[in-house]
Design brief:
Elements (H helix, E strand, L loop, with lengths): L10 H16 L8 H15 L5 E4 L8 E3 L5 E5 L2 H11 L9 H4 L11 H4 L19 E5 L16 H12 L4 E5 L9 H15 L1
Parallel strand pairs: 1-3
Antiparallel strand pairs: 2-3, 4-5
Helix pairs in contact: 1-7, 2-6
């Protein structure tokens, strides 16, 4: 019987993937957010994290748009990746909200791609992703440079608040976003591509 070898990635393959990543990172076809807008939104997300405005947490389980109370008293809104897409489009379109506007915007920000009637009856924040903010409709996938997964089955309200704050920042900061074509969505999962995008963005913001 022929034995199946254990998987290993050759140096040549790693280099080729890195070349693809370098090409895409610097490609004029890759939509990107202007540096001043990226700074504005990054600062806004930090200020939001440090305020008493509800945090947004992407985690399976629970109803998206529903709220839970953390053991430290902070209100948390459960979501999918919709608010990250919303932030990308606002920043890409050079919209500059202030921290004071965020509480009212929470009624407009999408926290779910879609919601059933039953889900909406259980949610506090009922916004869903609109056509104009749905990057998939334009053939793009939103990826994160630093991983945002909480990787735990513990209920959100029991997790350390510091961990949730870090997650919130990574989820919504434009400096942690990049787009890949939806038809090539797997590129956004390749460490070689992510690393090249990270290095390119670091140089661009220096």
């Amino acid at each position: 019987m022929r034995e199946l070898p254990y998987s290993k990635i050759s140096l040549e393959l790693t280099q080729k993937l890195g070349e693809i990543g370098k090409f895409w990172a610097s490609s004029p076809d890759r939509p990107s957010i202007q540096p001043d807008m990226k700074h504005h939104w990054d600062t806004l997300i930090d200020d939001w994290a440090n305020s008493d405005i509800p945090l947004v947490v992407r985690k399976g389980g629970g109803v998206r748009g529903g709220i839970v109370r953390h053991s430290r008293g902070r209100t948390i809104i459960l979501s999918d990746n919709s608010p990250a897409q919303w932030v990308f489009m606002r920043a890409y379109q050079q919209t500059r909200p202030s921290l004071d506007e965020i509480p009212s915007l929470l009624r407009k920000i999408p926290f779910a791609f879609v919601a059933t009637r039953a889900d909406k009856s259980k949610t506090t924040y009922k916004g869903t992703l609109q056509v104009g903010d749905n990057l998939g409709n334009r053939g793009w996938r939103l990826c994160h440079i630093k991983p945002i997964g909480l990787r735990t089955r513990e209920p959100v309200q029991s997790l350390p608040i510091e961990k949730l704050l870090d997650h919130f920042r990574l989820l919504l900061k434009p400096s942690n976003f990049f787009l890949v074509p939806l038809s090539r969505a797997g590129l956004g999962e390749l460490s070689e591509v992510i690393d090249e995008v990270r290095k390119f963005e670091a140089r661009a913001s220096a």
